[in-house]
Write a structure and sequence with these properties.
Strand content: under 5%
Helix content: over 70%
Shape: globular
Oligomer: single chain
Largest sheet: none
Number of domains: 2
Distance between the termini: 33 Å
Radius of gyration: 18 Å
Number of helices: 8
Structural class: mainly alpha
Length: 181
């Protein structure tokens, strides 16, 4: 259920865009992300770092879009977020006490060999780099309307497919790991 909560601002952005324009949709995105972050803080008494980063990027690039009436700023936001995440995932190979970030996020739920954690982390790094680049490509070479659809359905769809593939890979190796015990 919490995963659905993550996509509410993007859905609001999409719906408002369908009835208005990019600037109004961007203001709706900014407002809904602020409310979403406030709700998360009220419930958990903390904000996840990725939420804080996403909120900051939406506020900075959204403000630039609203002030200049230039949609390119908000169109760059997904790429910057994806590429920052790629740097974080890649950087976790070198800092963090020898545990890559994907392992730190999931090791309490699944036991995997060290090499599998490294492969999973590297695959997320590549995924974030590719989807960030794909976002720029769609923003540059397609219409604004197509980009808005891509932001909701394309990036979300790619992420869901990738998560399912990752889960299948993890299950396969978790079983192998359990069999070794």
């Amino acid at each position: 259920m919490s995963q659905l909560f993550e996509f509410i601002p993007v859905l609001i952005f999409f719906l408002v865009y369908q009835w208005t324009d990019m600037v109004t949709a961007t203001m709706a995105l900014m407002f809904s992300m602020a409310i979403q972050s406030l709700v998360e803080w009220l419930i958990k008494r903390k904000l996840e770092r990725t939420r804080l980063l996403a909120l900051a990027l939406v506020m900075v690039f959204g403000s630039a879009t609203v002030l200049t009436k230039n949609p390119l700023f908000i169109q760059w936001k997904p790429t910057i977020l994806q590429w920052v995440l790629a740097v974080v995932f890649m950087g976790s190979h070198f800092v963090g006490g020898g545990k890559v970030i994907i392992r730190r996020l999931l090791e309490d739920k699944v036991i995997l060999p060290d090499a599998i954690w490294v492969r999973l982390n590297l695959s997320w790094t590549v995924f974030f780099l590719l989807t960030g680049g794909l976002n720029l490509f769609v923003a540059r070479y397609f219409s604004e309307e197509i980009w808005v659809r891509f932001k909701l359905f394309g990036l979300l769809g790619l992420t869901l497919v990738f998560v399912v593939l990752q889960a299948m890979y993890m299950v396969r190796h978790a079983r192998e790991n359990d069999a070794e015990k």
